[in-house]
Amino acid sequence: MTNKTNHGLRELAQLAGVSKSTASRVISGNGYASPEVKERVLQAAETLRYKPNAVARAMVTKRTNNLGVIVFREQPPIVSHPLYGKIIDEILVASEARGYSVFLKTDREMSLRSTDFLLEQRVDGLILVSRLQKNVIDYVKKFNLPYLMVNGSTDDPEVIHLVSNDETGGGRAADYLHGQGHRKFFVIAGPIEHRSHSLRLAGFTRRLEQLGISTQSSAVKIVPSPESNFAYGIKLMEEHYQVFIDQGYSALFTTNDMLALGAMKLLLDRGVRIPQEVAVMGYDDIELGSMYSPSLSTVSVDATGIGRDAVELLDKLIRGVTDLPKLVEYNSHVVIRQSTEGKE
Amino acid sequence: MTNKTNHGLRELAQLAGVSKSTASRVISGNGYASPEVKERVLQAAETLRYKPNAVARAMVTKRTNNLGVIVFREQPPIVSHPLYGKIIDEILVASEARGYSVFLKTDREMSLRSTDFLLEQRVDGLILVSRLQKNVIDYVKKFNLPYLMVNGSTDDPEVIHLVSNDETGGGRAADYLHGQGHRKFFVIAGPIEHRSHSLRLAGFTRRLEQLGISTQSSAVKIVPSPESNFAYGIKLMEEHYQVFIDQGYSALFTTNDMLALGAMKLLLDRGVRIPQEVAVMGYDDIELGSMYSPSLSTVSVDATGIGRDAVELLDKLIRGVTDLPKLVEYNSHVVIRQSTEGKE
DNA sequence: CTGAAAGCGCTTACAG
DNA sequence: CTGAAAGCGCTTACAG
């Protein structure tokens, strides 16, 4: 049994009977080496269980082949967040495919700490996920580090960001529900400061107006929610339950699935039949929604495309490719499931 | 505006008018420096926006302060897996608190690639999550690297592993359901090769036997499932639906929540009333279950404790603490929700 | 095709 | 209390 000491290039070279330079060339795959020499080095690497030291390599090449991903969220479910989890999964897979490893960090206080950490780790690039404060991106910009934003909001025209086309998606939801015959809409809208929530709502109401439904009238009731989670879906539906029933709203639209699920659970628990009495529609297409009974109709967000392209674009940035798009939008489409179908 | 070039210790020292050694001492916090000197260096660091190079530091200290986490799963939902996601979230938080950053890797083919990668990155320690093949741990053991296993299975007495006490939990589920008056049990059991599924089932049936219910008789029907996901919950329930109804099983127990949710959805879609006609109980306590309508009764797994302790134990291992426990078990408790309550 | 030498940006004894 | 020097484990021109 070879001992557990980690061997370096020097021991490797020694055992193979070559110089460190030569050993380095065959291990790294850069530069020439005769077949016989190559064979000997590889053989030695095997018996020594040699693992090149990526830290040392990074120091000289000034490339770590590491990416940093920071998810900005105040509340605990971070990786396990149904939408961000999907995006991160995709980032992981796409990174692996391009030879990058990823440091995953979460940042609760929208601080600069995690950014600093990754800067010190000399990651090759940074993916900033979710809404983040302007100061974070102002900070990142001061350094010479490729970065991009996923699912955040910014007016900064310099910043590359990937978002789903929430306004169009909101419009499609309105279109679909209207097409199903609905004329009275109850809407629970997540935090207006959050780009996606505000655009989804804007798209939804604009489309209703175009369809001849005044969103100022009693045909549309919009309830704002300070948070976009399950608990608030329940809470707000509970608070407005009486109005909801009395006014005869036949369709419920929320700016994300979690709110929809919460509201739907409250309705189901009170015996309201979905979709027979009320049609419910969310946004995001989280896995949970497809598993619900009734399964939740929704508007999809292309988490797979976003995650994949984030890595691809960042890789291009790192490699110095220019003329990259500053804004990449992903199309949303309506996903019809049990919570809205069956309405005749 | 300071330019974007990244400055090194040399420039820092130069600007502060001290030697690199001194600059290093104040930046790293190791060693002495007079208040005035310290002040000057810090000042210079500020104006230069100096970020210590963690790569260089790691090379000399032989400590990266990085941890590697590998999640072994063949199927896509990895980070976004409802249970593993929770554990990973906790690992992230606990790592941060102890000054570690984490490389998150997934491994679909149970290969040695991700392990090698992390070995090359010279992480200080490794957390192996989920079921992994014996060859992976045999491989890791050959290197001089602290590691531990979470939620996996091993007979190797040397390996530190953290698991939930699945057998006891299975027994508690049986106890609870029996106490609710149920005498006919339908069980969907996940892959028997997976430690947690087989122990949950074993605990459940053993306890039933103790309660005087023969698990060989028609009182208990056990259906094995090759996968432990939602789709199989639906599929198996569908296949056995007629038997299920005809035989009058009043309780359904599955070895995880996903299976329970799938089976429950099928029952609900067919109009079976839960819990009035059938009580349903899962295992894991994933967030989804608490949101369902009816919310799912289950047996909890202490994901928070597991994630937190994994980092704590690994940190101790890294710091050379000895006499660590080889096996840490976490208690499970029954979580009663709508899918079983209401039965009188 | 291969090797000697310099250097990546730090830290750490060791002098003084 | 501070600085000069060596060295961590690699890669990369540059000779030969």
TrEMBL record, chains A, B:
Species, as recorded: Paenibacillus rhizolycopersici
Per its record, how is this protein called by name?
LacI family DNA-binding transcriptional regulator
Q: Which InterPro entries match?
A: HTH_LacI (IPR000843), LacI/GalR-like_sensor (IPR046335), Lambda_DNA-bd_dom_sf (IPR010982), Peripla_BP_I (IPR028082)
Q: Which GO terms describe its molecular function?
A: DNA binding
- What SUPFAM superfamilies is this protein classified in? lambda repressor-like DNA-binding domains, Periplasmic binding protein-like I
**Swiss-Prot/TrEMBL keywords:** DNA-binding, Transcription, Transcription regulation
Q: Where is the HTH lacI-type domain?
A: 9-61
